[in-house]
Design goal:
The complex is a heterodimer of chains A (447) and B (393). Chain A is of the alpha/beta class and 447 residues long. Chain A contains ten helices and 21 strands. Among the domains of chain A are: 175 residues, Rossmann fold; 35 residues, no CATH class; 79 residues, no CATH class. Chain B has one domain. Classes of the chains: A alpha/beta (447), B mainly alpha (393). Chain A: Its EC number is 7.2.1.1.
């Protein structure tokens, strides 16, 4: 069954540097990393020591507060270092990879014919629980919960976002098996959002409710689709899985192995070799991009939500995109003059950039101003297609007013849904951070 | 530019964090960022940002005010010379007006920005740009002959009590420019109303007839200006609010750049027209009415400060309603109340100032009810979800 979702409000940024639809096998990295900070609010507890030999799929750490939640190695090799940050917080677990992977064998399983408990147990023991996210709060799902529905968005609307149809087209069998497994985890429905590209390949997937999503970014965000399809109420849980991760779960059941394949699109105006690379989770970014200097920012993920990484670091756990954009640490004379610097995109009409709807912009990391008090109203609503008052919610988060946050819909939002709000914000506040702090407060106070 | 940049960097050295004059950095930064958009980069979250910033937004409003300001300079000179009699040229008029108005602007900016800078240093935050607009608005809505020290005192009151007392830009409840005017109006009424104050140097002229149209109407006399005069603004009035035409040009700039809310502007005019139409309809209902109630509704929209107030003051995002629905209600009530105050209160015929200040106070309440509706929707959804679970069980 297919239902259409049309989003009107939003903003599709057209940027220079889309990846060419050409899938290349990336060289095998020397080391791979799993970074616990990629899983928000997780407190990892290590199970293997430095120097230990591990197989792909071997547990390396688990969640201190939810022991069933295990995190496994994407490759086989030797655990090289555990990098720690402040207060000995584990930042990165780096694994020296073998030339070829040897997998831990979990045994094949027909998800559709197995009972729910066994499916769940298999997902957890293989470390695939890491791929399942929970809303509210946008954290790794607690396996003890039963979600009212599971949402998957194979819609790419973000700036320079990789094409989900292209990534999934050769993995349809694994995707279907993954859906069969996920179906067992919820008494409700599995919702799958598709756009024109991914619909070609996913229209015949069974066991899902298919939603054809149209409209500007953030229509592709799973949070927006949840809001339109079946909004989250207080006390409810829904789970979300990224489409490529569904195929990893599917492959687990088909082959009995944890095959942590990841397709990463290299995008952005500063990258020369803009292609899709087939690699493994946690690979070194240097293996797929050319050497860049300090005047280029490497972002693991999208330009709106990703993390800044260095050339010698690893790609994030969930990223299927690496964006290279110029650093903007230059001064601009009289940058405040209206109708000047029209090469910088603006959603407001104080620059003439809107006269060139087909132009592709080449943004830098410049803040284009300084942080100020919240003054301008109405701009946030334009890019947040939710029945939520963004400015009031942000103020409630800043004030730490739990009742107000609850009333204004904190359970329905995730930081990524506010990425465009942060982008257009005249006062240059770090709004995704504010929402994250609000969510963290809810986790500790309400749970 | 490169040379200036290097000089600036050198000047800024002692103000860097940990250096001797660190405390005064906001003041220097304000000047620096006026010349150069800083080299600050994003660190996390959205790595790219929109080209707009608060400075650009505020400057756009200043730009929108320029037509009205230039027209005001000419009109003040024109009103002066026409009462004086004799020949005069366009440049005479604009020169006379400029000579009066430029010092007012200088005083307003000097005093207001002085306080803003002091508070920025004191509180350790950057200087907010809001005063760029307020500082220009204040002289534009005062009578031309207001002594400069009174203007300065009004500015001090507006910035200190109207804004900084509430926590600075973004936190104030009342529009600061109107707070300044209200202060002057109640503190120095003889300088702010009557027949004499609206024409430059009226005291030097014998038998001046410098009443505003609203003043004339309130005293029960007939208006000697045509509707075209009222629209173009060749009438006595405050410094730069008389020309509805110039105000509409400004409104166009604000609406096209999305800096001003078209909802507030449109609903403001609708509100004023609605109230005026009700008054116009009184004779039909058997009430005789007076000059003010019978004044044609469309002329109500083009006289006095109504248009200026709705376009430039009601749209101040900080003191206005912040929700989209709230903006419609807020704008409508401003127009509606402004005409009502005009008609019912002959002692003070121009009602737009009081209407906006009143609605500034009510804006948070309007928002509260708009948001409550959203909250109720959400609660209703929870209840229906719970009911579904019950029936399922």
């Amino acid at each position: 069954m297919s239902k259409d979702i049309r989003i009107k409000r939003g903003l599709s940024l057209r940027l220079e540097g889309e990846a060419e639809k050409d899938l290349v096998k990336a060289p095998r990295s020397k080391t791979y990393a799993v970074k616990p900070p990629d899983f928000h609010a997780l407190v990892p507890k290590m199970v293997v020591k430095e120097g230990a030999k591990i197989l792909a799929g071997d547990e390396i750490f688990f969640s201190k507060y939810t022991k069933e939640l295990r995190f496994t190695s994407p490759v086989s090799g030797t655990l090289k270092t555990i990098k720690r940050g402040e207060k000995r917080k584990i930042m990165e677990v780096i694994i020296d990879a073998d030339p070829t992977d040897t997998y831990k064998d979990f045994g094949k399983m027909d998800a559709a014919a197995t009972d729910a408990e066994a499916v769940k147990e298999r997902i957890l023991e293989s470390g695939c629980g890491a791929f399942i996210n929970q809303r509210p709060y946008d954290i790794v799902a607690d396996p003890k919960d039963t979600p009212k529905a599971i949402f998957i968005s194979a819609v790419s609307t973000g700036p320079l976002a990789p094409d989900m149809g292209f990534i999934l087209k050769d993995k349809i069998a694994a995707f279907q098996e993954g859906i069969n497994a996920l179906q067992k985890l919820t008494p409700g429905k599995v919702h799958l959002g598709v756009d024109d590209s991914s619909a070609q390949y996913l229209k015949d997937i069974k066991g899902v409710e298919l939603h054809h999503v149209k409209g500007p970014h953030p229509a592709g965000n799973v949070g927006i689709q949840i809001h339109k399809i079946d909004p989250i109420n207080q006390g409810e849980r829904v789970w979300t899985v990224r489409p490529e991760d569904v195929t990893i779960i599917g492959n687990l059941f088909l082959t009995g192995k944890f095959i942590a394949d990841r397709t990463v699109a290299v995008t952005g105006s500063e990258s020369k070799n803009r292609k899709y690379f087939s690699t493994t989770i946690g690979a070194e970014v240097a293996d797929i991009i050319e050497k860049v200097e300090d005047d280029v920012r490497i972002i693991s993920g999208s330009v709106l939500t990703g993390d800044k990484i260095a050339y010698d670091q690893h790609i994030g756990f969930f990223s299927n995109e690496v964006s290279l954009i110029p650093e903007g640490n230059q001064y601009r004379a009289f940058g405040w003059l209206p109708f000047t610097y029209n090469n910088i995109h603006s959603n407001s009409k104080t620059s003439l950039s809107w006269l060139f709807p087909n132009r592709k912009f080449k943004p830098t990391t410049n803040l284009n101003g300084e942080e100020r008090s919240l003054v301008v109203t109405g701009e946030m609503e334009e890019v947040l297609p939710m029945d939520v008052y963004p400015m009031q919610l942000i103020k409630a988060c800043l004030a730490g007013d739990i009742e107000k946050m609850e009333n204004l819909g904190i359970y329905e939002v995730a930081p990524e849904d506010f990425a465009l709000v942060e982008y257009v914000n005249t006062s240059k506040m770090e709004i995704q951070d504010v929402i994250r702090l609000g969510l963290d407060l809810m986790i500790t106070e309400v749970g | 530019m490169e040379w200036i940049r290097q000089k600036l960097d050198k000047i800024k050295e002692p103000f860097a964090p940990g250096k001797k004059y660190e405390k005064y950095a906001p003041a220097v930064n304000a000047i620096d960022t006026f010349l150069f958009t800083p080299n600050h980069t994003t660190q996390k979250g959205a790595h790219i940002r929109d080209g707009v910033d608060l400075k650009r937004t505020m400057i756009t409003v200043v730009l929108a005010l320029i037509p009205a300001l230039i027209f005001g300079m000419w009109n003040q000179g024109y009103q002066h010379f026409i009462q004086l009699g004799g020949d005069f040229t366009f440049w005479d008029a604009i020169g006379h007006g400029a000579l009066k108005i430029v010092p007012m602007i200088v005083v307003s900016y000097a005093v207001g920005l002085g306080i803003e800078f002091a508070f920025a240093v004191f509180r350790g935050h950057e200087v907010n740009e809001g005063y760029l607009v307020t500082g220009l608005l204040i002289p534009m809505i005062m009578p031309i002959d207001l002594p400069l020290w009174m203007l300065a005192l009004s500015v001090v009151f507006a910035v200190l009590v109207g804004k900084e007392a509430f926590g600075g830009t973004g936190m104030n409840i009342l529009n600061p420019a109107l707070t300044a005017r209200a202060f002057a109006f109640f503190a120095y009424p003889t300088y702010m109303s009557g027949n004499q104050v609206w024409v430059s140097e009226a005291s030097k002229i014998d038998g001046v007839s410098g009443e505003t149209i609203l003043g004339t109407l309130a005293s029960g006399e007939d208006v000697s200006y045509s509707a075209m005069n009222m629209f173009s603004g060749v009438i006595p009035g405050s410094v730069a609010e008389t020309s509805t035409l110039c105000v509409l040009v400004g409104a166009l700039i604000l609406v096209l750049t999305k800096v001003g809310s078209w909802r507030i502007i449109l609903s403001g005019f609708i509100g004023a027209a609605a109230m005026a139409l009700i008054f116009n309809a009184l004779p039909v209902m058997g009430v005789e009415g007076n000059n003010l109630t019978n004044f044609p509704w469309f002329q109500h929209l083009i006289i006095g400060g109504l248009a200026f107030g709705i376009v430039f003051m009601a749209t101040d995002p900080v003191s206005a309603s912040q929700t989209l629905k709230g903006k419609w209600i807020y704008g409508f009530l401003i127009g509606f109340l402004a005409v009502m105050i005009r008609v019912f209160n002959p002692a003070y015929p121009e009602g737009i100032m009081l209407a906006i200040l009143l609605m500034n106070v009510f804006a948070p309440i309007i928002d509260h009810y708009v948001i409550q509706a959203n909250i109720k929707r959400r609660k209703k959804r929870i209840n229906s979800a719970k009911a579904q679970v019950k029936t399922a069980v």
